[in-house]
Amino acid sequence: MIQFEQVTKKYPNGQIALEDVDLTIEDGEFLFVVGPSGAGKSTLLKLITRETSPTSGQILFNSQSISRIPGGKIPQLRRKIGTVFQDFKLLLNRTVFENVAVPLEVLGKKDSEIEKEVSAVLEKVDLLEKASSFPAQLSGGEVQRTAIARAIVAKPEVLLADEPTGDLDPKTAREVVHVLEKINDEDKNIIVMATHNVQIVNHFKKRVIVLEKGKIIKDEKEGKYETD
């Protein structure tokens, strides 16, 4: 469970990214965070990973205050959180298999464990046959599914997706979110997806949080993203 309790984030230049945010995300929940550019979506995600800290208020992850975690233990927090980016951040000189294996290598897993776990996750995202391909040989959807596989291979409790469909065509975008939905159903992890994609949000009918000028103006189960 993730809890925001009266969280405000004010940057040194005076910009208020989030203001008095109260939010509870239950275990196993799939949540869309929507709103215009500058509404605070990316800041909300960065607060969960402790890339930045709140100016006031607190964020609890499994009842532990993220802000109070000592600097040396932040990597332990981040091992529980997988992140998927709009720009993929894959290593171009490594194959699909090698890219997905990186988090397990960092954890010091044995080669036999890496082989088993990477193969299993590539099968889950329907990329096992592309294991030996390089990112430049993949379609946009395949690249993003590789990034998703890398994010979940270490079995995180939380998966954050920051505009993961931003550079994809509508059909491919929907396929990618279907993959996220499958992961959520099977692994029961929390998924928080920040997006501008009205069609995706309205198609999948998950919980929707609408941010505007740093404030939550709507929180709706099976919600929609209504724009003017």
Subunit organisation of the chains: single chain
Sequence of strands across the biggest β-sheet: 6-7-8-3-9-10
- The computed structural class is alpha/beta
What is the level 1 CATH name? Alpha Beta
- Give the SSE order as H and E letters: EEEHEEHEHHHEHEHEE
What value does the Rg take, in angstroms? 17 Å
Topology, number of strands? 10
* The CATH homology group name: P-loop containing nucleotide triphosphate hydrolases
Secondary structure layout:
Elements: E1 2-10, E2 16-25, E3 30-34, H1 41-48, E4 56-61, E5 64-65, H2 74-78, E6 81-85, H3 96-106, H4 111-124, H5 140-152, E7 158-162, H6 170-187, E8 190-195, H7 198-204, E9 207-212, E10 215-220
Parallel strand pairs: 3-8, 3-9, 6-7, 7-8
Antiparallel strand pairs: 1-2, 1-4, 4-5, 9-10
GO cellular component, one term: plasma membrane
Main location: membrane
Subcellular location: Cell membrane
Written description of the protein model:
The protein has 228 residues and is α/β, with parallel strands linked by helices. The chain has one domain: 3-Layer(aba) Sandwich (Rossmann fold), CATH 3.40.50. The chain has 7 helices and 10 strands. The strands form 2 sheets. The protein has a 6-stranded mixed β-sheet, sandwiched between helices. Strand 4 and strand 5 form a beta hairpin. It starts with a strand and ends in an 8-residue tail after the last strand. The mean pLDDT is 92.
